[in-house]
Design brief:
The longest helix has 67 residues, at 17-83. The protein has 448 residues and is of the alpha+beta class. Strands 1-5-6-4-3-2 form a 6-stranded mixed beta sheet. It is globular, with a radius of gyration of 34 Å. It folds into 2 domains: 70-203, 2-Layer Sandwich (Phosphorylase Kinase, domain 1); 211-446, Transferase(Phosphotransferase), domain 1 (Orthogonal Bundle). The chain has helices spanning 2-13, 17-83, 89-92, 103-109, 120-126, 164-177, 211-214, 223-243, 314-329, 346-355, 359-365, 371-387, 398-405, and strands at residues 116-118, 133-137, 140-146, 152-158, 188-193, 198-203, 248-249, 258-260, 266-268, 275-276, 278-279, 288-290, 311-312, 410-411, 445-446. Residues 422-448 are annotated as: Disordered.
Length: 448
């Protein structure tokens, strides 16, 4: 019995060799698994990086293809205009025809593209056969439209009986407006140009035009809102003059051409008179100039009515000044159907009161009682007087206008912008010094 017990004891103290073999085998297997897992992780990371690079390359190629197609459209327009050859809409855009599987896919893409050409049938579908009219004028009628994705648009349908010159201008201006992108400029989504329909498709502006709020007793806005609208409008014009790839003069700045989004963000619209400006080699000042009478009476700068005199982009500054006066007074600058006092030209009345040191009278008459509002109104008053100086070189740039309105530049007392009306024949007081440095980047104040 004793021997049996000793044997059992020894067996308990000495583990079987097979256990050691199992442990060593387990370690070898797991080491192999670790190596395999590490290799898998590295492979996954490399594959993900390569896939991302491939996707980016594909997207860039697709964008380039779309842009090159759009560039062909503009080049075709320019080449046709430069050759002065007859306009044939079918052949002109034959290369620009866009293949599409469905209307929805086509319209979804235009939000990220430049203006796209539509057929007359597509325009009918978008406007529900021209069922909702928004307004009309000498140019034609504006209808409300809806894209299949729900986006609302304003469709301006022009009169079909437009002459060849108007047709060429219509096509050329698509290339100009379509190249402008700014939060304070109305976006052009597309156009239609064929035998039966000639139309422009713009973004829809829920609150209509600014004149509806300035000249109606039922739609009054607070000065704070009007000040923001003035600043936004000025920034849109500044973009056209100073930030666009090629300088653009609008020619027709007025309340009717300032449209308002649902949140009252202003957007400059109606580029029907807009023109590219070429740098003059004869101008010592290096101004961007052109000639020709344009604009709307009451807003157009004096030089626009003197044909043959070079006209600079400062004509837009003058028009903006007239718009500022109407924002300030919340009335038309001249209202012939009102009382005798109202028939006085508002800008000149403002200057007379300002020159007599009675700016408080201006603010009281315009109904500004709050101190903060009065301060903003006084700034707008001074800026307006500088903008409507008779000589273009005495007017600030739009960059200077924006900085003054936002309070980033001190404004010195303006000079008499209407001295030429007094009969003295002298306008030298308002043009003694140049305003070409009026952006105020060095001095911090506007001194002409």
């Amino acid at each position: 019995m004793q021997r049996v017990d000793n044997s059992a004891q020894k067996n308990k103290e000495i583990p079987p060799k097979s256990n050691h073999l199992r442990e060593y085998a387990w370690l070898g297997v797991n080491a192999s698994k670790f190596k395999s897992m590490a290799g898998t992780i590295v492979t996954t990371i490399v594959s993900a990086v390569l896939a991302t690079v491939v996707v980016i390359i594909i997207v860039k190629i697709a964008r380039c293809c779309n842009l090159s197609k759009i560039e062909k459209i503009t080049d075709l327009i320019r080449n046709r205009n430069s050759r002065n050859s007859p306009m044939n809409s079918t052949t002109l855009y034959q290369e620009a025809t866009i293949e599409m599987d469905s209307m929805e896919q086509f319209l979804d893409k235009i939000l990220s593209e430049r203006p796209v050409r539509y057929t007359s049938e597509q325009v009918k579908q978008i406007t529900d056969n021209f069922s909702t009219e928004l307004g009309k004028g000498g140019y034609g009628v504006v209808y409300k439209g809806i894209f299949p994705n729900g986006l609302q648009v304003a469709v301006k349908v022009l009169k079909v009986s437009i002459n060849k010159t108007c047709q060429e201008q219509f096509m050329a201006e698509i290339g100009t407006v379509g190249r402008t992108y700014h939060k304070n400029l109305v976006k052009l989504y597309g156009f239609c140009f064929d035998e039966s329909t000639k139309a422009l498709l713009y973004e829809y502006m829920e609150n209509g035009s600014l004149d509806k709020y300035l000249f109606s007793s039922q739609n009054q806005l607070q000065l704070g809102q009007l000040h923001d609208i003035a600043v936004g409008t000025a920034k849109g014009i500044r973009y056209l003059h100073e930030e666009c790839q090629q300088k653009i003069v609008h020619y027709d700045i007025k309340p009717a051409n300032v449209l308002l989004k649902a949140d009252f963000t202003p957007k400059v619209s109606d580029f029907g008179l807009a023109k590219y400006c070429e740098r003059s080699t004869d101008s010592n000042s290096g101004a961007w100039i052109f000639t020709g009478g344009r604009g709307t009476p009451g807003y157009a700068a004096p030089e626009l009515w003197n044909l043959g005199i070079p006209v600079t982009y400062k004509c837009d500054v003058y028009s903006f000044g007239m718009l500022l006066f109407e924002i300030l007074g919340r009335r038309r600058n001249f209202e012939a159907d009102q009382t005798a006092e109202s028939q006085e030209w508002f800008p000149r009345w403002v200057w007379q009161k300002f020159d007599q040191g009675e700016i408080a009278t201006i603010l009281d008459t315009c109904g500004f009682g709050d101190d903060e509002m009065r301060k903003k109104a006084e700034i707008m008053c001074k800026v307006a007087l500088w903008c409507v100086q008779y000589k273009p070189e005495a007017r600030p740039t739009m960059n200077g206008v924006v900085r003054m309105l936002e309070g980033d530049m001190e404004i010195v007392p303006p000079l008499n912008p209407f001295a030429y009306m007094s009969g003295s024949g002298s306008t030298s007081d308002s043009t003694q010094q140049s305003t070409e440095g009026s952006s105020g980047t060095t001095s911090g104040s506007y001194v002409p």
